[in-house]
Design brief:
The protein is α/β, with parallel strands linked by helices. Helices cover 32% and strands 21% of the residues. The structure holds ligand BES and zinc ion (ZN) (2 copies). The site of one zinc ion has 4 residues, from loops.
């Protein structure tokens, strides 16, 4: 596995250019394309004797657009410093600095170098800038050759606090990605439980505790069992992670429920087309986000928000086997609601329903949020850049939307269309678990009907459903994301919790 890059802040006065390998200088977008951070440029010129403005002229096509990058080699043989990166930073918005950071980190990826980053973030954009530097350095590898050392970044400016916070967020995403990228012959629900336990041990917070339910303890969790019993061993697990610092019984209680399908074949309603199955090791991205978010809050120690959190990771494998559930089976969820299963590939809502019903009945949450790679339809509606968000609490939706926009994980509120509820009426059970005739024009909104199904199990709670089927995966190695699992959800949830 590749390791987390080192990142720290440094004052311009104490920068030692000559001991680093490269310096990144901002290029601004404006009427005139020019270099930003003149103080850094001056001081670099003084120490090296190089004419930086002259060097910049060797990039005549520069426009200053965020993320453009030009490498200028320095012909120095005595010192280490061997190159300058001119990097477009646009107008310096968070989004711009994120693009600039991605371009820089991708350029120097795994070269084991110390980079002075003079791209000039401001306090409010420093966090996203630094998170992006770290996340763009991520690769998951099981190749047998030795992993390369990641780059080391020194950020010019007084950003100690921002860097500290960025490290916590990026560590969270990094942890989620490691789980998501792990192949499914390694990860099963038991493996997820063991990973959660060892991460809890590593984080060493007295506020954290973890309980794993399996076998008979899951008797009432009919959805989790119906899906998870398709796997011969070790069977499904409910991982319950609690973050409850001293005094937190009087603070808001947030319950996060994550879909943790460690592989989704579709079950007996085998996934079609079968090429789509390859990506399905990422179907536990929701559970990974829940785990990583809670650990991130615990990592904040005394700076953590005054909030109590319970995470429910609904872990199961959806296999095709002699013990797999059948289309037409009727299952009994936690709390007694019966559901007629019509398509075993819509397994996510079955495991989530138990989690939501359990939270509603037993945990008295002030906020109940589920996060899941739930429907291909969400991706059809919004593509890969936005998660589909469903809630009746429009104020909360607005808050989450704004936080997501700022931190770089965007969520878009979609309507819970009551008229479509009739699609979930079953002849023999309380509900059909999906719209029976998806070809009927009104009911083809698969992400909406899935949300309506889940809403029933959340009772009257302050509930939000995040369908992350789109943004949980990236088709290519680009920007902050590696090809495959992105770790989506950790940042927006952690930032929202921090705002409570
Ligand atoms: N895990 C999939 C959803 C998914 C699709 C996630 C693409 C990421 C990328 C989910 O379990 C599923 O198969 N959903 C079905 C539901 C349908 C049978 C009602 C879908 O979206 O096709
Ligand atoms: Zn499925
Ligand atoms: Zn699934």
């Amino acid at each position: 596995m590749n390791s987390f890059p080192a990142i720290s802040g440094v004052d311009l006065e104490s920068v030692n250019f000559l001991t680093c390998d490269a310096v990144a200088i901002p290029v601004l977008l404006g009427e005139k394309v020019e270099l930003g951070n003149p103080k850094l440029v001056n001081s670099l010129e003084k120490t090296t004797g190089e004419n930086i403005s002259e060097a910049f002229k060797s990039w005549p096509d520069a426009t200053g657009k965020a993320g453009e990058l030009f490498e200028y080699p320095l012909k120095r043989n005595k010192e280490k410093l061997s190159r300058i990166y001119f990097v477009g930073v646009g107008q310096g918005s968070g989004e711009d600095l994120r693009k600039a950071a991605s371009a820089l980190a991708r350029k120097v990826k795994a070269s084991g170098n110390l980079i002075i980053d003079g791209l000039n973030p401001k306090a409010d954009t420093a966090v996203v800038h630094c998170v992006s530097l770290i996340l763009s350095s991520y690769t998951y590898t099981l190749k047998s050759d030795k992993p390369k050392k990641p780059a080391t970044f020194q950020i010019v400016g007084k950003f100690a606090q921002e860097i500290e916070h960025a490290k916590i967020l990026a560590t969270g995403v990094w942890r989620a990605r490691d789980l998501i990228h792990t192949p499914s012959n390694i990860k099963n629900p038991l493996w997820m439980a063991n990973q959660a336990k060892s991460l809890v041990t590593k984080v060493k917070s007295p506020a954290l505790s973890i309980k794993i339910k399996s076998g008979k303890e899951l008797a009432e969790f009919g959805g989790l069992r119906a899906v998870g019993n398709s796997a011969p061993k070790p069977g499904p697990r409910l991982i319950e992670l609690s973050y409850a610092p001293k005094g937190s019984s009087r603070w808001p209680h947030v319950v996060l429920v994550g879909k943790g399908i460690t592989f989704d074949t579709g079950g007996i309603s085998l996934k079609r087309p079968y090429e789509n199955m390859v990506a399905m090791k990422t179907d536990m991205s929701g559970a990974a986000a829940v785990l990583a978010t809670i650990l991130a809050i615990a990592d904040m120690g005394s700076k953590a928000p005054k909030v109590r959190i319970t995470g429910l990771m609904m872990c199961a494998e959806n296999l095709l086997s002699g013990t797999a559930q059948r289309p037409s089976d009727v299952i009994r969820h936690y709390g007694g609601t019966t559901v007629e299963v019509l398509d075993t590939d819509a397994e996510g809502r079955l495991v989530l329903a138990d989690g939501l019903a359990y939270a509603d009945a037993e945990l008295a949450p002030d906020y109940l949020i589920d996060i899941a790679t739930l429907t291909g339809s969400a991706t059809l509606g919004l593509g890969r850049q936005y998660a589909a968000m469903y809630t009746r609490n429009n104020k909360l939706a607005k808050t989450l939307g704004e936080i997501g926009e700022r931190i770089g994980e965007r969520v878009w509120q979609m309507p819970l269309i009551d008229d479509y509820k009739v699609a979930l009426v079953s002849d023999i059970a309380d509900f059909n678990h999906l719209a029976e005739n998806p070809n009927q024009p009104d009911f083809s909104a698969g992400s909406v009907t899935a949300a309506l199904f889940l809403e029933h199990f959340a009772g009257a709670r302050n509930w939000v459903h995040l369908d992350i089927a789109g943004p949980a995966r990236s088709e290519s190695d680009s920007g902050e994301n590696p090809k495959g699992g992105t770790g989506f959800g950790v940042r927006v949830l952690t930032e929202w919790l921090t705002s409570l």
